[in-house]
C-alpha cells in the first residue's frame, strides 16, 4: 500500500512491502519507485522501502534548484517517519549518488550499501557529455531525448524484443515535470563524491553493466578502489537500465550481498 509523508512542505510517496531486514531502494533520475518492482518481486526475505524522489512520480515537485543534500535530508526524514533506524541502502544511477551522500552523512544508519549503475570520478570528457545532456533537458523534455538515450540504456536485442515496454517507458518519461526533471538532472550532472569515497564505512557492493557508457566500469572500479570494504560486480553484456533488462541478475546479486 502506498502512503505519503509530508515533511517540511514536501510530499513523499512511498511503499513498504515484505518482511525481514530493511532495504531502502532509491531510483534514478526521471524514473519512479516502480522502477524497482521487478527486482523487489525477486528479492524475498526483506522489508523493502521504495519511494518517489522529490520531483518524481507521485511525490511533490518543487521547481528547484535541488541539491544532493536535499535528497539526503528527504531520505533521512522518510526513514524517521517509517521507523527505520538502520537498513541496507541500495541506489540506482542518481539514487546511487544519493546513497553515497547518505552513507557519508549518516554512517550509523547504513547496514550495507549497494551502488548500482551509478557515477563517481567523471573525467573531463565525461563531464562535458553530461553537461550537454543537462542543457538539452533544461529546455524542457524533448521527445528526442528518450529515443537518443535508448542505445545507452538498453542492448539492441532487448529493445527489439520489448517494443511495448520501450513505448511505456517513453510515455512515462514524457510525463515528468520539466522543471523538476531538470533540477534533479542538474544534481546528477554536477555532483561528484569521488574524493570522499574513502570515508564510507559501510560494506559496499559496486555493480554496473559492462557496456554502460554513463556509469561505466572505470567509474565502478574507482569506487571499488576507494571504498575500503567493497566488492565489485561488472555485469557482462549489459548497459545502463539493468533494473528493467536484468532484474533476475540484479536481485540475485543483491540477495547474495545483503
As for the CATH topology, it is Rossmann fold
Corresponding CATH superfamily: Alpha/Beta hydrolase fold, catalytic domain
Beta-strand fraction estimate: 15-25%
**In the CATH hierarchy, what is the architecture at level 2?**
3-Layer(aba) Sandwich
| Domains (count) | 1
The Rg value, from CA coordinates, equals 17 Å
Which term fits the overall shape?
globular
Note the run of SSEs as H and E.
EEEHEHEHEHHHHHEHEHH
Largest sheet: 8 strands, mixed
State the separation between the terminal residues, measured CA to CA: 24 Å
Mean pLDDT: 94
What strand order characterises the main sheet? 1-2-4-3-5-6-7-8
Structural class: alpha/beta
For this structure, the quaternary state is single chain
Jot down its keywords.
about 260 residues; alpha/beta; eight-stranded mixed beta sheet; globular
Structural topology:
Elements: E1 2-7, E2 10-17, E3 22-26, H1 37-42, E4 47-51, H2 68-82, E5 87-92, H3 94-105, E6 110-116, H4 124-138, H5 143-153, H6 156-161, H7 163-174, H8 178-190, E7 203-209, H9 217-226, E8 230-235, H10 242-245, H11 247-257
Parallel strand pairs: 3-4, 3-5, 5-6, 6-7, 7-8
Antiparallel strand pairs: 1-2, 2-4
Amino acid at each position: 500500500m502506498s502512503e505519503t509523508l509530508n515533511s517540511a512542505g514536501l510530499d513523499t510517496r512511498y511503499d513498504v512491502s515484505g518482511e525481514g531486514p530493511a532495504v531502502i531502494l532509491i531510483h534514478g533520475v526521471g524514473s519512479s519507485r516502480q522502477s524497482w518492482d521487478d527486482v523487489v518481486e525477486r528479492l524475498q526475505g526483506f522489508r523493502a522501502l521504495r519511494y518517489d524522489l522529490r520531483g518524481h512520480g507521485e511525490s511533490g515537485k518543487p521547481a528547484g534548484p535541488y541539491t544532493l543534500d536535499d535528497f539526503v535530508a528527504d531520505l533521512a526524514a522518510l526513514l524517521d517517519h517509517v521507523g527505520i533506524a538502520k537498513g541496507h541502502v541500495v541506489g540506482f544511477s542518481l539514487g546511487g549518488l544519493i546513497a553515497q551522500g547518505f552513507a557519508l552523512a549518516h554512517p550509523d544508519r547504513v547496514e550495507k550499501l549497494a551502488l548500482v549503475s551509478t557515477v563517481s570520478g567523471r573525467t573531463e570528457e565525461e563531464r562535458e557529455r553530461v553537461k550537454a545532456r543537462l542543457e538539452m533537458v533544461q529546455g524542457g523534455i524533448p521527445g528526442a531525448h528518450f529515443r537518443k538515450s535508448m542505445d545507452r540504456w538498453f542492448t539492441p536485442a532487448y529493445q527489439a524484443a520489448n517494443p511495448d515496454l520501450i513505448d511505456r517507458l517513453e510515455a512515462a518519461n514524457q510525463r515528468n515535470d520539466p522543471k523538476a526533471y531538470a533540477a534533479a538532472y542538474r544534481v546528477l550532472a554536477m555532483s561528484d563524491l569521488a574524493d570522499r569515497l574513502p570515508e564510507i564505512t559501510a560494506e559496499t557492493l559496486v555493480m554496473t553493466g559492462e557496456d554502460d557508457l554513463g556509469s561505466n566500469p572505470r567509474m565502478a572500479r574507482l569506487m571499488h578502489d576507494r571504498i575500503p570494504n567493497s566488492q565489485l560486480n561488472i555485469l557482462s553484456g549489459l548497459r545502463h537500465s539493468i533494473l528493467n533488462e536484468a532484474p533476475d541478475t540484479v536481485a540475485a546479486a543483491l540477495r547474495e550481498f545483503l
